[in-house]
User: Which sequence fits this backbone?
């Protein structure tokens, strides 16, 4: 049964039709919708790559929390490793790997902070425990023990026991504004389909190029 499903997905969802797309955002929307239906875990998961002041790259998994033609949004502690790297170099790359669909989508470009209002609205939508965790965790910094983290969680749970939990000033959203987007679909014998879209700046016209696998 699993083999039949994989054959169906391979034939139905990884055809070469996508290489005829005129621009990348509609194509990403179609693929993301497919992933939300067919990907087993976290279709919004993406690898986020940044670089430190020496140019050494770094990467980790984050969750896409919104996207449009304006860019792709994620949220984090601005005092974390990725936040510090972005403060020094406001550029990033992201990769979506939808293994169940045998597809990948990549993007790269400058990064801009989202507005405080956007950050406030998303923070308010998070589960209460996650909001307390944002206050308790000094993300990416050394932790002496698990007990120290649990103690910090207990402290903020008591502090915010009644009423709303405000967004910490260091917790915010970022938007990657893509200047390049690439789509990859699995094909037999590693003769995959790849197409790349590039543009000079936000709002500029996209150019398209098919790539060797």
Assistant:
């Amino acid at each position: 049964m699993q083999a039949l499903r994989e054959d169906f997905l391979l034939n139905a969802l990884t055809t070469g039709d996508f290489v005829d797309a005129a621009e990348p955002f509609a194509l990403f929307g179609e693929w993301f919708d497919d992933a939300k239906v067919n990907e087993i875990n976290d279709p919004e998961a993406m690898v986020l790559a940044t670089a430190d002041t020496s140019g050494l790259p770094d990467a980790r998994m984050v969750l896409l929390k919104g996207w449009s033609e304006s860019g792709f949004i994620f949220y984090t502690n601005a005092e974390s490793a990725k936040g510090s790297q972005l403060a020094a170099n406001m550029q990033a790359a992201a990769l979506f790997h939808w293994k169940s669909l045998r597809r990948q989508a990549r993007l790269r470009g400058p990064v801009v902070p989202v507005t405080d209002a956007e950050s406030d609205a998303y923070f308010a939508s998070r589960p209460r425990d996650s909001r307390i965790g944002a206050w308790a965790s000094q993300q990416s910094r050394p932790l002496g023990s698990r007990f120290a983290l649990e103690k910090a969680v207990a402290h903020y749970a008591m502090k915010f026991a009644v009423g709303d939990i405000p967004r910490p000033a260091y917790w915010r959203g970022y938007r990657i504004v893509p200047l390049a987007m690439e789509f990859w679909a699995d094909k037999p014998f590693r003769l995959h389909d790849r197409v790349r879209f590039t543009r000079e700046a936000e709002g500029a016209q996209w150019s398209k190029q098919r790539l060797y696998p």
About this structure: The mean pLDDT is 92. Residues 186 and 192 are 5 Å apart (CA to CA).
